[in-house]
Amino acid sequence: MMNTSISNSFKWLLAALVMLSMSIFASVSQASDDLVEPQLIVKTASEKVLAVLLDRREELAKDHQQIYDLVEEVVLPHFDFARMSRLALGRNWNEASPEQREQFVEEFRLLLVRTYATAMLEYTDEELRFLPFRDDLDSGRVNVPMQVIQSSRPPVSVNLALYKNKDGEWKVYDVRIEGISLVTNYRSTFANEIRNGGIEALIQSLSERNERIRS
Predict the structure, then answer these.
(1) What CATH number has the domain bearing residue 84?
(2) How many other CB atoms are there within 10 angstroms of residue 22's CB atom?
(3) Domain range for residue 132?
(4) What is the DSSP annotation of 30-53?
(5) What pLDDT, in 10s, does the model give residues 43-67?
(6) 206-to-43, 89, 110, 181, 202 alpha-carbon distances in Å
(7) What is the per-residue pLDDT across 101-159, written as a single tens digit (0 to 9) for each?
(8) How many domains does the chain have?
(9) I want to staple 107 with a disulfide (CB 3.0 to 4.6 A). Which of 40, 66, 189, 206 is the partner?
(10) What is the model's pTM?
(11) H-helix or E-strand containing 206?
(12) What gap in Å lies between CA 108 and CA 209, rounded to an integer?
């Protein structure tokens, strides 16, 4: 059974991914010529997914596997789940066996994908606005600040942290919603779970959560 801390963090994750899905799927008003490469990655992904979502919303709502497949195809290539997993486990990553690391990465990835896919259906007519880009692209590590503009609510701050891998590809490794880091939030939660029952208990908790989402 998933403990209370994992369950509460899952609720935060769902809220965060709803906002992230809005940022990925919202319409982008800026012209491509005004954006740098990491911003263009977000813009391109948003346009691809938004087109499918608007065209097949009813179909996707009835068959979540198709949503999972869409996220796997369009969104996942831009995320580094192995890096996110290492950061989320913190020092506990070094204590885990290779098999446990592999299992954790897969369960954490499934949790994010399935929650993210479900959050897609929350999209209405939000607009994504890129804020001024101030980082140095040559550093290989940047933040892409954005605002999700909603008609009936205040703007929401969304920040994607990306790094350039050895193949020259920009990958997302953290998401911050209103300044709250997804990775940092889960690092604390996972550390508590490991202290109480070990990493195997954490992996089992994530697996159970994924099964419930799938069903």
Answers:
(1) 3.10.450.710
(2) 25
(3) 4-214
(4) S-GGG--HHHHHHHHHHHHHHHHH
(5) 887 778 778 877 888 888 888 888 8
(6) 31, 13, 9, 19, 6
(7) 999 999 999 888 887 777 766 666 667 788 888 999 999 999 999 887 777 778 888 88
(8) 1
(9) 206
(10) 0.81
(11) helix 199-214
(12) 10
